[in-house]
What we know:
Number of helices: 2
Distance between the termini: 38 Å
Radius of gyration: 18 Å
Strand content: 25-35%
Number of strands: 12
Largest sheet: 8 strands, mixed
Amino acid sequence: MTGNHKDTSITRRRALVVTGGTVAAGGLAVAGYQSAFADTTTDTAATADATATSSECMTLMSSVTEGPYYLDGALVRKDITEGKSGVPLTLRLTVVDATDGCTPVPGAAVEIWHCDAWGYYSGYTTANPGGSAPAESEDGSTANDNTYLRGYQIANANGVVKFETIFPGWYTPRTCHIHVKVHTGGEKEDGTYEGGKVNYTGQFFFDDTIAEEIFTLEPYSQHSGSYTTLDNDMVYDGGGASSGLLTLKAVHKADPSKGYKGFLTLGIDPDAENTGAGSGSGGGDGGTPPSDAPTGDAPTGTPPSDAPTDSATTSS
């Protein structure tokens, strides 16, 4: 698969500055969590490793757009799959304060959302993902069409959150990615997270070699077409971990279908605010197709009026 959907009208390559753990107001630092990822690794050890990398924090000069598929009211839960099929993906993310020596940010709420194996987002299940894919309704799952693959987790005392999900698919003209917001100052209420402010809006990305191997497996292989690689993506700016590139470890090296574990440290400025809404100049539009893309690629209509509630299955 090759990337042939690059939008040449978007020129957003941003400078990255080594700051020794300090960012300007509104900035974000993201450093790769480089120790071996294992279920036996303690959160304390994770935090120690994150703090040790504080001198290597990279400042991302601005957040990127939240994209066209955001919905309010995601549930606080660890497992966001709701039965959606795909290669298992465990995310371990550590939130640190880049303005205070990369110390942990306990209580930070990390919110993620992404498409399913065929490129469909909950809330927008009829939006055409491009290429040729079965209808979202043909996946056979019992997932709630308004809530699947969306969720919050609240950081523990060491700034760590964990999610259980699936490896995302792709849609035209974007590369494989996961959206993320980091909130502070709010609280869990009625199964979701309310109040506070958004300190960071960004996206996580995946190595092309791993993604393309995953996409040869079921159910991903049922979505055919031209996959956009990292180099041709309209949002990813080539900055590696500092721009959201996850470090991935295969659960079983000889069998990618067994899943992956991904990890990253997110260094935020808790005093900053960036919702990502309408920030096309800060990193592309996050998914609106170029003028020559097939019609229907962008989401249509408005988010459903019956916003997600805690009636869906939740877990801490």
